[in-house]
Amino acid sequence: MGAAPASRDVTSYGMGLAAPLALFFLLFFVAPLLQLLWLSLHNDTAGLHWGLGQYLHFLTDPFSLGVLGSTLLLGAEVTAVCLVLGFPIAWLYQRVGPKLQTIIIMVVLLPLLTSVVVRTFAWIVILGRQGIINATLQSLGIIDTPLKLLYTQFGVVIALAQVQMPLMTLPLITVLGRIDPNLDDASCSLGAGSWRTFFRIVLPLSLPGVIAGCTLTYAAAITAFITQSLVGGGQMLFMPMYLYQQASTLQNWPFAAAISIIFLLAVLAVVSVFTTLGRLSRGYGGA
Amino acid sequence: MADAPSGRSLVVDAVTHRYPSGALAVENINLDIKGGEIIALLGPSGCGKTTLLRIIAGFIAQTQGRIIIGDDIVDALPPNKRAVGIVFQNYALFPHLSISENVAYGLAARGIDRATRQHEAQRLLELVQLPSMAERLPRQLSGGQQQRVALARALAIKPSILLLDEPFAALDKNLRLDMQIEVKRLQRVSGITTLIVTHDQEEALSMADRVAVLSHGKLEQFGTPSDVYDRPQTLFVNTFVGSTNRMPGIVVSADRTAAKVRLDAGAEIIARPAAGALAEGGRVTVCIRPEHLQFVGDETGFAGVVGMSLPLGATVVHEVTTADGSGVKVSQARIGETRALENGAAVRLAPLAPSLANAFPATL
């Protein structure tokens, strides 16, 4: 680094290259967002009276707060499941031969190659009253009456975890691949067992990937409209569906806009917690 | 652990290792290493020396044979129970832990309390002359400093054996010499039986009490540096350790201690049968080191024509083409004003002494 001030740094490019994308974002992202904000600051559906009524309504309504809370909790549960199931896969990936690596990466990527709708319907088939799980358990005589799996929090978490798994596994595979395998051997030769090596060496060094994976999984899980609605059904209400109902069915656009803004801020808060953790763990980088 | 973990003997007993593919990594290696010795495992890359090191450390379970440390057969022990310290080629310091935490890591794994750990880490950092670096992170240190930390970390667990895997390969030349001296000093102080894996023959010869030369998974020779250099037992050792001229010829007559060989380059010379008795009339390869050839004024020796002369400082190397068209190198010490040899000058060459020409049966 440290280029001579007199000569132009050949690796710096004009910001002009980013202009098309910036314009696109300005037109189709920033502008609608501002419009949303403007809309949310009106007390009536016609948009004539300014005020914070919609926000007050949301923040004093136990039902709305409940939906927000259960959505954020859902995200946390899905993220936890993805982390616990995804870490071993990523770890395994770095320790098997190239053939098995190809198979693992295929299995990890496969969910991305099929439509979310198809994947979600598959889960309905699996979890339903006459679904694969219930049919199997009943034919084995383990249960008499079908378990209620579909339209439960459990069902939504499992389906979302499967759908979002690549978002956790891929960053973990990347970060684990950057850890020098000699560190494992070094730790072992110094007398540490596998668990100490994992908690003192592997886990701290993979934190950047863990945080990236958690951020992606979390953001994707709480906004997954299709999976949430289809697997959750009518009884489970999460923010995206709540928003959709207010806007589409009830035509209450200002309230829907306020929900959007609150949801956005809530997600940003959680993500910024993750990124702060990420920055703190950056000290571990450069393995 | 034993009371005196340092300076324990190490026996590699008929160790053979096959890769899952069936290929031999090392074959029937026998090494009997006394407590406190420095041993170099020397060989080109792919000769199996790193595999052998990993077998001793316990990272690889050998197919056959035993590893005995002190009086214990350690084959059933995992690496974390063997008390073998390792310094890796890239040092493998834990990048997220401070220098002092790195050094104390093995002590923490042994359940030693924090105060003792810190005290011990500081003592070791003083031993490797880095007492003020305790709170830094590994990446803030230079290569040589990182290596000292890696040494301190390995020594902290009071290992019975210290293994060094190409420890100096990543250092530049001047630093390498400093660190070689440093390692030898630390080894003398601690008395730990030490095994250095290296492909650098100078490193092996200068640091080790005894050198084990490996090639293609087999032990070619295990002896003192002067044995290996002056009395090589195989053609491979002769050519791999130091430089040598290989001159083909036919055995005229031979007994156990001397063979008369007619070189293809002309002239008959007396050579040492390095690998046992030679058959009369058999083809041999005679190895003579460049510094063991001299220009002679009389009719003894073989004729050649000087091609190029390279003044290398303390020595001058001449390239001489012999009668059979092959080239030999002659290294002359630069004593006073060395006579400059003209390009194309006709000369005669002979070995300094019969014991300095080693004859090996020619391989086809």
UniProtKB/TrEMBL annotation, chain A:
InterPro entries: MetI-like, MetI-like_sf. Residues 68-274 form the ABC transmembrane type-1 domain. It is a multi-pass membrane protein. The chain crosses the membrane at residues 21-41, 65-91, 103-126, 154-177, 198-219, 255-277. GO terms for biological process: transmembrane transport. PANTHER family: ABC TRANSPORTER PERMEASE PROTEIN, INNER MEMBRANE ABC TRANSPORTER PERMEASE PROTEIN YDCU-RELATED-RELATED. It is found in: Cell membrane. Belongs to the binding-protein-dependent transport system permease family. CysTW subfamily. This is ABC transporter permease subunit.
From TrEMBL, chain B:
Residues 10-241 form the ABC transporter domain. The keyword ATP-binding applies. The keyword ATP-binding applies. Keywords: ATP-binding, Nucleotide-binding, Transport. One of its GO terms (molecular function) is ATP binding. GO terms for biological process: quaternary ammonium group transport. One of its GO terms (cellular component) is ATP-binding cassette (ABC) transporter complex. Pfam families: ABC_tran, TOBE_2. Involved in beta-(1-->2)glucan export. Transmembrane domains (TMD) form a pore in the inner membrane and the ATP-binding domain (NBD) is responsible for energy generation. PANTHER family: SPERMIDINE/PUTRESCINE IMPORT ATP-BINDING PROTEIN POTA, SPERMIDINE_PUTRESCINE IMPORT ATP-BINDING PROTEIN POTA. This is ATP-binding cassette domain-containing protein.
